[in-house]
């Protein structure tokens, strides 16, 4: 990637020469306005931008075209990571892979994991809110012969928020705490008398002890009142949603980055000329 910043102008800040990476926006506008020929490409495990440039353009120094064609601002973090690099990235960002796998990032509708077909009678017996997750199957003579899960892309930041009142110590924001293996929550606020948790699983009760999932340590939590303060997903609809962990969210994003687009070889001269004109090289 030695050629990535070659066409970017420099400026001086605090007597130090720096690259004006903000000028990249001009390149993006030039591409979207004048060039419409891109080819889809799926990266091999560990494949670098300079290797793609070598394959398509017979010149690895055109890696900057690959980066900018895919709106990659930071080549170190926005490019697809192989498994070793991805594992190190997760451990650095979240403390460990197990911590990333324990932490909920958001909730989404789980239609992809449900291939059931239910009868019309079963559908009629559903609650009003549950019916939105199903779509009819149409058979002979336009008759409804059953229902299958509807493809929905709904996402919510959290399922529920609960306020715990009582006396507490040893609990901090972002801790994952639990009363049992299925009763958990992520702390968003804590002081000696109040703890607010989100991503709530199970039913919290006035009981002790409470544990920190990541450390395994018991913490002081004499809970006197449990107050639901937000319910984004109704209780009878919880089975239609799945918690997505931080690890899963990062893994899916990394997988998406394997699929890039490559600018047609015949447009390289035009891109290079536009870059020089736009950046006044």
Any key phrases for this structure?
8 helices; 33% strand; 26% helix; alpha+beta; 281 residues; three-stranded antiparallel β-sheet; six-stranded antiparallel beta barrel
Architecture overview:
It is a single chain. This protein has helices at residues 24-34, 49-57, 63-69, 83-94, 97-102, 120-124, 246-256, 268-278, and strands at 10-13, 16-19, 38-42, 104-109, 117-118, 134-138, 144-149, 155-156, 160-169, 176-180, 183-190, 194-201, 210-212, 218-231, 241-245, 259-263. It is an alpha+beta fold and 281 residues long. It folds into 3 domains: 10-80 and 257-278, no CATH class; 109-155, no CATH class; 160-231, no CATH class. The strands form 5 sheets. The chain has a 6-stranded antiparallel β-barrel. Strand 11 (183-190) and strand 12 form a beta hairpin. Helix 2 (49-57) packs across helix 3. The protein is flat and about 70 Å long. It starts with 9 loop residues before the first strand and ends with a helix.
